[in-house]
C-alpha cells in the first residue's frame, strides 16, 4: 500500500509549523513526512535583529529541529533546495532528489537590492543566523580596529541602516541599547558613534499609524538615532554609502551598511516555473498553487489578497503560522477525500520593538499601544509562538521573560 | 626652594613600579614626580596572550593608573613621548614638553620585523591591550564569515604563529583552549581549525631545558598545535604566509598570522641619540645611562650583562620590577647626596604557561616544574606582582585564583 508522501521544503515559520501540525494530525506510519532544511535548526527571523545588534545570543533565536520535530514521524534532511519540478512531482536538492505526493513550499524570503550598485557586495542584511552573527562581529571588529588605525577612521563608527521599515527600526532600537557596552569594551567615546537611518520615502514605518511613527522616531532620536527621509541610496562601497536627497548627492563614510529596504520571495519558486506575482504564488483560498493540486505554498512565497483592504497580507510570521494550520488540515482532508477549507486571516495586531523596554503597536480592534506595555505584549506574542511550536518546555528554554529589567 | 623633578616615561612594569616605590619613599611635597603614559592604564604584558586568545578579558589585564598611583604625590600626564633631549633635560611629548631633573626611561618594547615583507601590514602582534583585543576580534570575525563566503576559505581557520618563543607558545596554549568555544559559537567543525607554529630555529623555546621543551611541545600537540621548525618566514600577505624550509618554499593560506618572533627596545631611545647596543642602553651598575648622570633606564630599554653567564639578562617583567626598586632607592640617594647602590638580579625562576592548567618552568635552584603545579606557580608569581603594585585590594580585584578549575 502506497503511503502518501508529504514533503515540506524550508523550516521557517510556515514550514516548521506545518510539520509540527502534521505530526499531530497523523499517527506513526499513516503518512510519510519529509522535511528539508539548509540547517539543522529553525530560527525566529523576527528576533534576528537582536542577534545582529548583539543584545541577544543567537542560540536563543534558533531551535534545533530535533527538539520540536518527532523523528519517529518525520524524515529530516539537511540539504539545500535547488529547484522544484511540479509536473514530475520532484524536488531537486544539492545532494539528491525527492519525489512527493504533496509538497509544501516554505522557502522564505531573500534580499533584493533593486540593482543598486554595491549593496550585494558591501551591505549586510539581517536574514539568517549566519548573517546576523556576522553583523555583530563586524561591528565589534571595527570598534576593535579604531585605535589601531594610523588615522582614526569615522567610517568604523558610523552605522548606516538602509530602510526605515520594521526591521530597520527594530535593529536601530537594539543597536542604541548596545552601543554603550561596545563603547566601554573598546574604549571609544560614545558620542563618536553614529547610527543613521536612510529612508527613501517621506516617512519611516510606512503604513503604520502616524502617531505611533512619531512616538517611535522620538524614542530612537532620544537615544541618538539620526533619520534622513526622502533619501534614496545610490551606491555602497566598502567605506561609504552615497544617497540622493532633494536632487543632491551626499556621502556618509561607513563600513557598516545594514540593508533592510528590500526582501522578496525566494527566487527558486519563480525559477522553477511557477506563475508568480512579484515572485510570489497567488494561492487559492485553500493555499494551494492555482496550477497544481498537490502543491501548497506558505509564508513569504505565498500571496493572498486581503478582501477587506484589497491589498496583499503582509509577509509576517503571524500569517505564516496561521496558514500552516490550514495547510496541515487541508493535507489531511485531501488524503481522506474530504473538502479543503479556506484560509481566513485573524489579525492579532502588530508590534514593533524599539529596544529592550520600548515598542509600538496596533492590537485587537485597532487599539494603539506603546512603551513598556507594548514591549511586554511583543514578548507575550513571541512566547505564544514558542508554546505552539514546542510546548511549555520550549517556552521555558527560549522564551523572553525580562519584562521588568 | 627648587624641588627635584623626577619624570618617569612609560607606565609598564618598570615605570609604574618605580613610581609606586618613589611615592612610598617620599612624603607629599618633598619632590615633584611626573608620570607620563599613552593610556590611562597600566597593563600586564605577560597576560596579553590570554586577552588575544579570548580566554581572559582585557579588563583583568589592565589596571587604571589612578588605582595604584597616589595622585596627591604624582602628576599623571596622558600623552605620547616623541623624543628625549638629555643634554637639555627635556622630554618632548605629542602635546607639550617636560623639563626634568631626573628621568626614568621605561618605554618598553616594540615589534621588529627583520624587514620581512608584509609583516608590518598583515601580521598581528601581542603588544598592547589594543592589539590583543584586535586579535580576539579578528579570530571571531573570520569564524563568523566562514559560512557566508561563496567558497569556504580555509585561510579563515588557519592560525599561524610566527615564532615559537615564550609568547608564541603561551598564546598557542591559550588558543587551543579557546577553539572549542569558538567552533561552537560559529558552527564550525573543530577539526577544520588549524594552529601552526613556524619556528626559524631548530627548536621552540630556545634556551629552555630540552626536557621541558619536549613536555611543552607534547602538551600543545596533543591539543592540536602543529610545529614546523627550521621554517623561516619569507613573506606575509593578507591571505597567506610563505616560509622556507630545507630550501623549499611553502605557502599556508591564512588570514591570521601572529608575529611573535621579534621585539626590540622602543626606537625613541636610539633616535634620541643615546648610545645603544641593539637599541638598548647598556646601563651602569646603578642603572643610570653611562652618558648622563640624571637618566635611569628600566626594563626592556636597558641592557645589563649577567656576569655569571656573560650574556644580557632577558627582557622580563621580573627583571624590570627588580630594577625599579634599585632605581627608586638610587633616586633618593642622589637627592640626599648619598652613594647609589648597584643592581643585583635575583632569579625567581621562569614559568611559561601552556593554557589554563598546564605550564613549564625552572624555579629556584634550577628545579624543573611542569603541569598543574607549574601553572599554579605562575599564578602565584602573577598575584605576587599585583600585591607589590597595589596591595591586597588589587590582588583581590585582578588576581588569578582559578587554581583548580
From TrEMBL, chains A, B:
Pfam families, per the entry: Pyr_redox_2 (PF07992)
Record keyword Oxidoreductase present: yes
Top-level taxon of the source organism: Bacteria
Biological process terms in GO annotation: aerobic electron transport chain
Annotated ranges, domain FAD/NAD(P)-binding: 5-323
UniProt xrefs under InterPro entries: FAD/NAD-bd_sf, FAD/NAD-binding_dom, NADH-Q_oxidoreductase
Keywords: FAD, Flavoprotein, Oxidoreductase
Cofactor(s), by name: FAD
GO molecular function terms noted in the UniProt entry: NAD(P)H dehydrogenase (quinone) activity
Family: Belongs to the NADH dehydrogenase family.
Protein name (database record): FAD-dependent oxidoreductase
Native species: Oceanobacillus chungangensis
